[in-house]
Amino acid sequence: MSLRILLADDHAMFRSGLNAVLSTQDDLCCVAEVADGQAAVEETARLRPDVAILDIRMPRLDGLRAAERILNRPGNTTKVIVLTTYDEDSYVYSALHMGVSGFLLKSVPPEETIAAIRIAARGDAIIDPSVTRRLISRFAGSIAPPASSTALDRLTAREYEVLILMAQAHSNTEIARSLGIGDETVKTHVSRILAKLGLRDRTQVVIYVASHQLVTPLPAPPPGTEKPARRKGSGRRRAT
Questions:
Q1: pLDDT (tens digit, 9 = 90+) per residue, 149-185?
Q2: Does 115 have pLDDT greater than 70?
Q3: pLDDT tens, 117-159?
Q4: Is 202 in contact with 174 (CB distance < 8 Å)?
Q5: How high is the pLDDT of residue 87?
Q6: Residue 196 scores a pLDDT above 60
Q7: 224 CB contacts (<8 Å, ≥6 apart)?
């Protein structure tokens, strides 16, 4: 069954180009193209797509306000990805605060946009890696931790490893490959980590890990080369 996508951008050339990219994927289907935020809100309510991709700067209603209305609509199931040429901190903060599932720059390769759509559709969140790195360095020292540091003690050794890899923006598949476990096992660990730490999604994981100084706020190493950071003073625990 194909994922149903709505595209909202006031540049017709960009919409048609992205639509052409989506058409190359058997599991993706563009159900509507609109040129402004108000139309995006209306068509999302009518068509109920799986994912809505919104530009930030659009006429009638900008992408952020459109995202807010879509996400706050009673019974909404549509995930929202903000795809923009602007990565200003105010845009990033507003989008994440609203609960969007993705914040990507238009400069990302097509395959990354496709991957982001699939990630959002399954309930995860994704942020452009360059934005993630800036979030860590900018917000880590100023945002109060969403849970007490003692909550970390409730994590198993394996959950702690998954936590660190999540904060380094690795996908579930990459985490599974790195730790030698199955994708479903990773999903279970992710769910338990979010519940134990009182976090909503991967974005909050990044901020939580940085604010607790569990890892140095530097760009993550290439997949396959990293080793999860160990917590200072923690003893050896049984992985589950």
A1: 577 888 999 999 999 888 877 888 889 999 999 999 9
A2: yes
A3: 998 898 877 777 666 555 555 554 444 444 445 778 889 999 9
A4: no
A5: 62
A6: yes
A7: 177, 178
Burial 17-52 (b: 16+ CB within 10 A, else e): ebeebbeebeebbbbbbbbbbbbbbbbbeeebbbbb
Among 17, 41, 202, which Cα is nearest to 116's?
A: 202
Give the chain's length: 240
What is the DSSP code string of 172-233? HHHHHHHHT--HHHHHHHHHHHHHHHT--SHHHHHHHHHHTTSS-SSPPPPTTS--PPPPTT
How is residue 69 written in tokens? 């209305």
Interhelix angle for 172-179 vs 183-197, to 10°?
110
